[in-house]
Amino acid sequence: MTRPRVTATARGGVARVGTPAGQATVRVDSRGVHASHNMSAEAAARRLGLPIPTTPQKTAHQVLSNHRYHVAIDGLEQAAFSEVSGLSIETETMDFIEGGVNDRVLRLPVRSKVGNLTLKRGVVAGQHLLQWHLNIVQGYLDVRNVTITVYQTSGAVLTRFELLQAYPVKWSGPQFTGNGDAVAVETLELAHAGFLQISQ
After folding, report:
1. How many other C-beta atoms can be found within 10 angstroms of the C-beta atom of residue 181?
2. Cα 49 from Cα 79, distance rounded (Å)
3. Integer Cα distance of 42 and 55 in angstroms
4. 100/123 Cα distance (integer angstroms)
5. Contacts with 20 (C-beta within 8 Å, 6 or more apart), sequence order
6. What do you get for the CA distance between the two ends of the chain, in Å?
7. Which of 9, 59, 79, 146 is the most exposed, having the fewest neighbouring CB atoms within 10 Å of its CB?
8. 54 by DSSP, 3-state: which?
């Protein structure tokens, strides 16, 4: 392999490196290695024998933390949830065998479905969640939108998930034991028509 021709190189200076597409201009300064459009900074660093530039770590406020969130349900203002799970979409596939193609089977998407959302909260005053499910039990289709807001560690809104036309399909009351001291928790499972991810 022919090694690239370097006509000048110095930290804090400019180098010319030969590439299959022609000449690439490489600049080295205190912030790292910078190359022209026909060569990546990583390739330029390799050819000049310099440390390979790395992608900086995300700062703490850019990382998704699983404990900074808020759940809002239409018409329910007094419910704080200690755990939210089941935010998922699953797509079924169909195998398609194409004649003359023996080395693989094509898998085509067919239909998608969303999972039920599970909300858990410590038992507090009020029976709003149970009453919502009782409306469904009694034949009244009481659908509501649910918004899950996720925050950065800095407190700014990171993203929102909007669940459409949600309604309870399962309510579980707390378990009580005479010798226990754990927080009593009730659980509500919601079916919904799908969700949207809304950016900040």
Report:
1. 5
2. 60
3. 11
4. 62
5. none
6. 50
7. 59
8. coil
Q: What is the pTM of this model?
A: 0.63
Q: Which two tokens stand for residue 20?
A: 């299959």
| pLDDT tens over the chain, length 200 residues | 444 444 434 444 665 655 555 555 656 665 555 555 555 656 666 666 666 655 555 554 456 677 888 898 987 766 788 899 999 999 999 999 888 888 889 999 999 999 999 999 877 667 888 899 999 999 999 999 999 998 887 788 888 999 999 999 999 988 888 887 777 788 999 999 998 888 75
**C-alpha span between 187 and 189 (Å, rounded):** 7
On whether the CB atoms of residues 105 and 95 are closer than 8 A, the answer is yes
| Chain Cα centroid distance, residue 25 | 38
